[in-house]
Amino acid sequence: MLQISEFSIMKTIRNSTFLLLFCSISVYSQQADFQNWSSFKLSKKVYKRTNISVKEGVRFRENSSLIKKVFTDVKLSHRIKKTDLEISIGYRLADEYDITFSSEYKYRYYCDFANEYKFKRFTFSFRERFQLQGKNTYFTPLFRQKVEMSYNVRKTPFKPYVQLELFINFDDQLEKMRYTAGFAHPLTKDLNATLFYRIQQEFNTSIGENLFILGTSLSYKL
Q: Residue 82, SS3?
């Protein structure tokens, strides 16, 4: 019985190793790039449970050596009275650069439905987004689902979190997945800093791209 048990264990380890190697080869056979994403957001309460925010962002590609995108995002949010449900509408203007440094403007319109639940020191956040993005008269619809779990470390303002986001087109095909781990920490009463590491995978494309992203953000409440 002992020999059979050891054989089964070795077989399981071998199969698991093969599966891990296969998945790794599959991931790295696609294009891979290390990028840096940074942003700064200003937000202000305009009426009771209604807020407006403006975010400026910049992203670098090719191992963070070339600029990829500069964007401005404006969002209006309203929390429904006596609930944790928040509804938002937003607009983003992005100036995107290719590897030859030529650029083009892209526009995004979106609507969010977000909710969160708290359990002890944990917070579970959910966001559903419908967006239209493109240029001139051609816009592509996309549905995005994001779930996040954060934890407030006892007796500190330190708040680590993990996050998963899915990008689904209207043919019910998965286009992207984002896996994120990071933490938020207040610098002052109204200024908050976030540091995160993200992996983004693309699917259903002839040449998929895997991004490994180091990101930072600052947000300030007026």
A: coil
Q: Which two tokens mark 105?
A: 């403007």
Q: Cα–Cα–Cα angle for 72, 96, 191, nearest 5°?
A: 30
Kindly tell me if the per-residue pLDDT of 10 is higher than 50.
no
Residues 85-106: tens digit of each pLDDT: 999 999 999 999 988 889 999 9
- Cα separation, 131 vs 81, in Å, equals 25
Count Cα atoms within 13 angstroms, Cβ side, for 130.
4
Number of structural domains found in the chain: 1
Per-residue HEC secondary structure of 126-173 comes to: EEEEEEEEEECCEEEEEEEEEEEEEECCCCCCCEEEEEEEEEECCCCC
How far is residue 204 CA from its own chain's centroid?
A: 19
> What angle is formed at CA 149 by the lines to CA 148 and CA 151, rounded to 5 degrees?
145
CATH number of the domain within which 131 lies: 2.40.160.40
Q: Which two tokens stand for residue 54?
A: 């403006």
CA separation for the pair 71, 181 (Å, rounded)? 23
Is residue 37 in some structural domain?
yes
pTM of structure: 0.83
